Amino acid sequence: xxxxxxxxxxxxxxxxxxxxxxxxxxxxxxxxxxxxxxxxxxxxxxxxxxxxxxxxxxxxxxxxxxxxxxxxxxxxxxxxxxxxxxxxxxxxxxxxxxxxxxxxxxxxxxxxxxxxxxxxxxxxxxxxxxxxxxxxxxxxxxxxxxxxxxxxxxxxxxxxxxxxxxxxxxxxxxxxxxxxxxxxxxxxxxxxxxxxxxxxxxxxxxxxxxxxxxxxxxxxxxxxxxxxxxxxxxxxxxxxxxxxxxxxxxxxxxxxxxxxxxxxxxxxxxxxxxxxxxxxxxxxxxxxxxxxxxxxxxxxxxxxx
Length: 305
Fold this sequence. Notes:
alpha+beta, Porin, 10-stranded antiparallel β-barrel, 5 helices, 13 strands, about 55% strand
């Protein structure tokens, strides 16, 4: 006999005890008993008996076993994920647009009575090659996040470390445009640490899907320039080492919307979504805006303890 059949049997045998058992069930199976509670209270004991019984049976059938919808309103005890995506990168710094692949992975752990405290580590890597002027932009970012969840919402501080490696042709004629017929050279190689805030919402949609929306903003609090290579004199062929370019990573903003779709009974999910990231960079006395839009797919394993 399943627990659903046991409830139906108990309702038929002893109507007086139904209330007591019902409230016990409410604490243990919240998704099961919410609709039943509503119908039972609205109807009388005599006339509402069949209505209550039908609701219990229907809800028990929907939630038989442990379905995703019973858990996905909460954050898991632990989650491990990885994804790959197709990115469109628009760069003012190297004056070109192109596409590339982006990869990311991470782990999150939630603790507390309702899994309200979270710690997460995330890594993302992208390398863009621009065919127009043979420039390349490589970005590696490590993010450490702390979260506090209240209901489906979460918020917390984040810390990141990013490494930039850029190669681009010089501007030999000093017209503020990079030369397209010149080989690329080391342009920027720098790392920086950032501090910011992130937040979002996470909620169920049906029995097997969960939607999420995340936003984040980071300001760089330290940057280290690593390449002392620069064109020595505009209009003169060739380059020679000189003082490092003054480079600042500035601010970074992220927006991420996506969904998790249950593939197995509880643990394995398919994830897909869209993420947009913008950077505000400063090179010497000029400001540049870099934009990266990524459509991604991946897998996530979630464990509820």
